[in-house]
Design a protein that fits this description.
homodimer; 238 residues; alpha/beta; six-stranded parallel sheet; 9 helices; 6 strands; 46% helix; 12% strand
Chain lengths: 238, 238
């Protein structure tokens, strides 16, 4: 007979924690650099695009549509208006390809969620574009493991505190699993929760933090999600 | 002494129910037509843009960023690639202006929410871009009246049923207030709830329905939100 669900809650980030994402952006960046190679070297293209994205972040938020608009704006700027309408159409097509890209799960994700979901309340807590995140979750085949889904425009102490309040979560009984120290781990540790940090091999510059936080007994670094049940056991939650 | 809150729930749409929105799109459409007037008449521009928006809706969802991308795509198509980078930059600027536009409340909204919120559970239920809807709610000064906020990628029977489940709402004790028969009224009536239809003077073509639904005693048409407390009284909820 299955044990009753515990009152512990495990939150999961989505992009680059459950499925590949930054690799898709990286491919797009490569094609973007190629498109502008007649005008500027790769480093200048990358630096200027990132500066545009950061300038537009407050207005556009995260996600592919804002990225596409920033890529068009940057291309116009870097070519001093010489970019052709056909090339801009290629940028729109690049954005569309990203949105339609298949969802490829990371190693061990499906098995680990299937193992944990009967015993714990699992939440998906992600940021980005509403439609795009919903579509990826539906494509992933993982939706049935999550008791609830929160798609946020930003992940920080205030937005996690809001989720804790709405979902009646006690911070000391909450573990957040994710690949971003900045968005998934630091705010949760600050609120008194625990963090399972699963680095992805690529990290978008806007998510980088200077050093690993210290939180004895509440912070775990994992190579893959397969190690998560052992972390849950170590926390005494199973 | 104030009465305790009732267990009735009132949901409010946001754009064109609480604040002006379609008027901003209409201004943008005017400037878009002017930009393309050398190439095509206004009706062709409108028809082609709308067709692009509908084709992209599944991928982009609702909101200003998707609109801007569709406007760029349509402009390239309608000018056979002759549109200049400078003109495309103007389209990006148009989109940005829409996102940064001040929030102007509709008549009676602030007073009506202030009157109803102490006695009923008010929810904001809107669709569109996450960041943009959050920003508008913050700018509106109305956030404190709402017990919870749901920003959806689509409003239909399934997404309302999901809200009812998550928020422990009984359909027969739920009233939805909005300007769109298609998104705010029809799905809620179908689930057994009540609807207060407050038409806005402009309706986006994608939200139009052929005729007024029939739902005796559960559907009310209002001229402004000022009439809402009387509807609530008629339902026997006050």
């Amino acid at each position: 007979m299955a044990a009753p669900p515990s009152d512990f809650v495990i939150g999961f980030d989505a992009d680059d924690t459950l499925w590949h994402n930054e690799t898709i952006f990286e491919q797009t960046h490569g094609r973007y650099r190629a498109l502008l190679a007649r005008y500027h070297d790769a480093a200048t293209v990358d630096r200027t695009l990132f500066a545009t994205e950061m300038r537009n972040l407050e207005l556009y938020g995260y996600g592919v549509k804002g990225f596409t608009l920033s890529a068009i704006e940057t291309a116009i700027q870097l070519t001093a208006g010489k970019i052709s309408a056909d090339e801009i159409q290629q940028l729109i097509a690049l954005g569309r390809e990203m949105l339609a890209h298949p969802v490829v799960l990371l190693d061990g994700v499906a098995e680990t969620l299937a193992e944990l979901s009967p015993r714990h309340r699992l939440l998906l807590i992600t940021k980005g574009d509403l439609r795009d995140q919903e579509r990826k979750l539906a494509k992933s085949g993982l939706a049935s493991h999550f008791r609830d889904v929160a798609i946020l425009s930003e992940k920080n102490e205030a937005t996690y505190a809001d989720i804790f309040r709405r979902q009646a979560i006690t911070a000391a009984r909450f573990l957040m699993v994710g690949n971003s120290l900045k968005s998934d781990i630091l705010p949760v540790l600050a609120l008194g929760g625990a963090g399972a940090y699963v680095p992805y091999h690529l990290t978008w510059a806007a998510e980088r933090v200077p050093e690993m936080p210290q939180a004895h007994g509440r912070l775990f670094q994992l190579k893959t999600l397969r190690e998560l049940p052992a972390v849950v056991a170590k926390l005494g939650w199973s």
